[in-house]
Write a structure and sequence with these properties.
Number of strands: 2
Shape: globular
Mean pLDDT: 87
Number of helices: 4
Oligomer: single chain
Low-confidence stretches: 90-97
């Protein structure tokens, strides 16, 4: 998959609340990116979905660890990236078509 295809697929899964698959796709995208700022954005999104997975599965120790890390990661999120609103208040924005 191309970077754009990975991005769109990750957002689709996130919006469908399939956080495990979204996390996996964000990780795949992270591996493909070369720009540090882009990698940081994708890392924050991957961590947000990992947090959701841990909460869903009752893994509270891992969830607490991510909750301590996530505010710093989320603070660096731009309001929009690759055509989607992703700022802290917009993590559930549907994929643009």
């Amino acid at each position: 998959m191309s970077d754009d295809e990975l991005w769109r697929a990750a957002l689709r899964h996130h919006n469908a609340r399939d956080y495990h698959e979204a996390h996996e796709l964000f990780e795949d995208l992270w591996l493909e990116l070369g720009n540090r700022a882009d990698k940081d954005i994708v890392q924050a999104l991957a961590q947000a979905d990992a947090l959701a997975v841990h909460l869903e599965t009752g893994n509270l120790c891992a969830a607490q660890r991510l909750m301590r890390q996530l505010p710093q990661l989320a603070a660096a999120l731009p309001d929009a990236w690759r055509g989607a609103e992703i700022g802290r208040a917009h993590l559930s924005t549907p994929v643009p078509t």
